[in-house]
Design goal:
Blueprint lengths: L3 E6 L5 E9 L5 E7 L4 E5 H7 L4 E7 L4 H19 L6 H5 L4 E10 L4 E7 L9 H24 L2 E8 L9 H15 L3 H10 L3 E11 L2 E13 L8 H15 L6 H7 L1 E4 L4 H6 L7 H7 L10 H6 L3 H14 L5 E3 L3 H4 L7 H6 L5 E7 L1 H9 L3 H21 L16
Antiparallel strand pairs: 1-5, 2-3, 3-4, 6-7, 6-13, 8-10, 8-11, 9-10, 9-12
Helix pairs in contact: 5-7, 5-12, 7-8
Length: 418
């Protein structure tokens, strides 16, 4: 799917392309174009090529349903919310992410993956709150989980997925939800009972991911854990012991549990002999904005994810998102037992390090000065310009700036501007 298109006009045809490629019922590639009178029609690829030969450039238009565009759009909304609802010196990283220049902004293009991305910009590396940074970091963390599970299976271990939940209601704030839940987890893995459990199951370590939603009963914070135990061990045999142990730990952590039987039946879920795809599927609505934006809040029973709260037009949802940002600050979204990554041959990297990694095969195709970058930000065109770079390279970038009265020169091969 092309993310952006270059369309031209002459005195007889003032047409602007505003939508992406579609396949019609006959299997033909069609594009939607809209004239300045607002009328739209479908045209073939051949017609697009014909129009492309006419006159002068009117405008580049990004795909309206672009995943990248949705990420940048939500990032801008997140930054506006935080600027309006937090102190000036709070969350500076989030507020400045992908906006503030370190030096002239570089536009990189990977020929191998046909992906364009920016360099020399400040980033926040927030895996919880940033729609742009979280997508990149979570993608790399998912690769680590895949590798870790593969290595542990080949080392003779079995993986079981354990989900821990707790009672919650609308009066509980998210911060207290998280702190009490994590306190209960620490109590779970302490004492002689836990030592005996490890001995009988051959427990080696875990990977834990955290998930947050908000629904009719308020904030719902819960964790999904992969436990590596002795090969062939049936973790379902531990269901009763683990549910009772979790109940005791939640009581000690301060949770009010009026119905013990309901808690024991629902608060712990065990899936045996799982694979990485099953584990990552648990985060399908919260790991990566791609699915969240397209899915909306259709799964009412599961509540809204944080980015759905951000995307909402309801001011109360937006207030909840700000609470979420505050509550998750400084928290780890993904945790591995000490030594487990080393055992799996996975290098320890922070979210900041993962976010800073770049494709070695990418080349810089343009540098943007302060004035050029201001033009991009003013026109909310950060996603659009990357779409253009992927389709038309430097020539497309150059033509985009022409419509705003700017000129730009290609960089020399040594990375300096010509």
């Amino acid at each position: 799917m092309l993310g952006a298109f270059l369309l031209q006009k002459n005195s007889l045809s003032s047409i602007m392309l505003v939508a992406t490629q579609n396949i019609n019922k006959k299997g033909l590639s069609m594009f939607i174009i809209v004239g300045h009178d607002g009328a739209s029609r479908q045209v073939t690829t051949e017609k697009i090529a014909e129009l492309d030969q006419l006159g002068n450039i009117v405008k580049f238009v990004s795909a309206p349903d672009s995943i990248r565009k949705n990420r940048y759009k939500l990032q801008e909304k997140m930054q506006s919310l935080l600027k309006a609802n937090t102190a000036f010196d709070e969350f500076k990283g989030l507020k400045n992410c992908m906006k503030v220049q370190i030096s002239d902004v570089a536009i990189h293009h990977s020929v191998e993956h046909n992906k364009a991305f920016y360099g020399n910009l400040a980033t926040c590396s927030s895996v919880w709150a940033c729609p742009v940074c979280s997508a990149k970091i979570q993608s790399r963390r998912a690769q680590e989980i895949n590798k870790g599970m593969f290595r542990m299976y080949h080392a003779g271990y079995t993986a079981a997925m354990i989900t821990f939940t707790h009672p919650h209601n609308r009066t509980m704030g998210l911060a207290s939800n998280i702190d009490m839940h994590n306190n209960a987890l620490r109590k779970l893995r302490a004492g002689r009972q836990w030592v005996k459990f490890k001995d009988r199951t051959g427990y080696k370590g875990l990977i834990r991911g955290s998930e947050v939603t908000h629904g009719l009963n308020g904030w719902h914070y819960h964790t999904h854990e992969i436990w590596f135990v002795a090969g062939g061990y049936d973790m379902s045999k531990e269901r009763e012991w683990l549910a009772n142990r979790w109940y005791e730990c939640c009581i000690k952590a301060g949770f009010n549990i009026p119905d013990k039987s309901a808690f024991l039946a629902n608060a712990v879920d065990i899936q045996v002999d799982v694979h990485s795809s099953q584990y990552l599927a648990k985060f399908g609505r919260t790991w990566g904005i791609d699915k969240e934006v397209s899915m909306g809040a259709s799964k009412k029973g599961h509540g809204k994810t944080p980015f759905e709260l951000l995307d909402s037009d309801d001011s109360r949802d937006n207030e909840l998102f700000v609470e979420y940002v505050r509550a998750t600050r400084g928290k780890a979204q993904l945790f591995w037992s000490r030594g487990l990554k080393a055992m799996c041959g996975i290098q320890l990297k922070t979210d900041e390090e993962l976010n800073a990694e770049q494709d070695d095969t990418a080349e810089v195709i343009a540098f943007l000065s302060r004035d050029l970058w201001k033009c991009v930000k003013y026109n909310h065109a950060r996603a659009e310009l990357l779409d253009i770079a992927e389709v038309y390279g430097f020539d497309g970038i150059q033509e985009w700036f022409k419509q705003y009265g700017y000129t730009i020169q290609p960089p020399k091969k040594n990375g300096m501007i010509a």
